[in-house]
Description:
The protein has helices at 4-56, 60-84, 87-118. The protein has 3 helices and no strands. It has 119 residues and is mainly α. The chain is rod-shaped, with a radius of gyration of 25 Å.
Amino acid sequence: MPKPNRCFRCxxxxxxxxxxxxxxDTESWAGHHQSAQQSYRQEGENLEKEAIRKExxxxxxxAASLFSDAARxxxxxxxxxxxxxxxxxxxxxxxxxxHDFIKASDDSLRAEGIAIRxx
Length: 119
């Protein structure tokens, strides 16, 4: 018959292993979402830069498309930030996505104005 003290130590050891394993899974989950959030944010920023460049050379339809793609990536970034529980980043990403959608709309209207003048 094993001694009670030894059983207690074995039980505590097993609980500790399961606890640490759970922490590792949580860290892995959070790291995945944090990486995805940063990736989507970077994609959105790169598309915004390209859209601004296209906008400057009067390619309004291409710029509008790029701004809407950037907004989509910003929304994905906001979703990942929400899963991480980061309310500040979520709000910032949603505001930036709204700004990008407005820019896409403006560029689309500019392209329409150019098309109307060309007729």
